[in-house]
Write a structure and sequence with these properties.
With 210 residues, the chain is an alpha/beta fold. 26% of the residues lie in helices and 24% in strands. It contains seven helices and ten strands. A hairpin with a 2-residue loop joins strand 3 and strand 4. Helix 3 packs antiparallel against helix 5. The longest helix has 11 residues. It is globular.
Length: 210
């Protein structure tokens, strides 16, 4: 891996049982709070993937690597509640984007690190998430780069960075990538054609990934 500074590119484990008497090491956040404009306004987190809602599939995956599971949603809370330890919502009602969900997740997470995954990446697998976790740093976020393209999601963010992210938000920042770039993030290289980070953000692509 390399470190990513502003302007510079510098096997399977069992699910961990949540110990409510101690802070968990890893919290996971599934981002499912968007408007779904590219899929006709549908709730992407509830779209079917191989016979079940994609959030059911991704929630099971996140539970295999994390100590608690949060889901960021702004509608259909009753359906998402069945998979989550806790639901979080954006503080704004105008769907301000993934950074808002990340902030809400960091405020509620009990873990030292927050593993963030969008709900439209059904091909991601446990080894890829474990690679992020293996590079956990108390002061730096971790994310991937495919070829020369930074991929800010999924990512791993230390909970201690919440004040810095809140400050960036108050200054008008809405881009997760720009925030990560200012925090001396660790960037992990993947092949340019890595399929596991495919974002299913159109109906055609969503059907093709089935």
């Amino acid at each position: 891996f390399v470190r990513y500074r502003p302007g510079v590119i510098t096997q399977t484990t069992p699910a961990r049982a949540l110990n409510m008497s101690a802070s968990p090491r890893i919290s996971a956040l599934l981002l499912a709070g968007g408007q779904g404009r590219r899929v006709g306004g549908a709730d992407k987190g509830l779209l079917a993937y191989r016979g079940a809602p994609v959030s059911a599939h991704l929630s099971a995956l996140l539970r295999s690597v994390a100590d608690e599971l949060l889901i960021s949603c702004n509608r259909n809370a009753d359906q998402y509640r069945q998979w989550a330890d806790q639901l979080v919502t954006d503080s704004s009602t105008d769907y301000p984007g993934p950074l808002a969900g990340i902030l809400s997740g960091l405020r509620q997470a009990r873990g030292e690190q927050l593993l963030v995954l969008p709900c439209d990446m059904p091909l991601i697998d446990q080894p890829l998430l474990e690679r992020l976790i293996s590079q956990a740093d108390p002061d730096r976020p971790v994310f991937f780069r495919t070829g020369e393209q930074p991929q800010p999601l999924p990512c791993l963010i230390p909970r201690g960075l919440l004040p810095a992210l809140e400050y960036a938000w108050l200054q008008g920042e809405r881009s997760p990538l720009r925030c990560l770039r200012t925090m001396d993030a660790i960037c992990l290289d993947l092949a340019a054609d890595e399929p596991r980070l495919t974002s299913a953000n159109t109906p055609t692509l969503w059907q093709a990934l089935q």
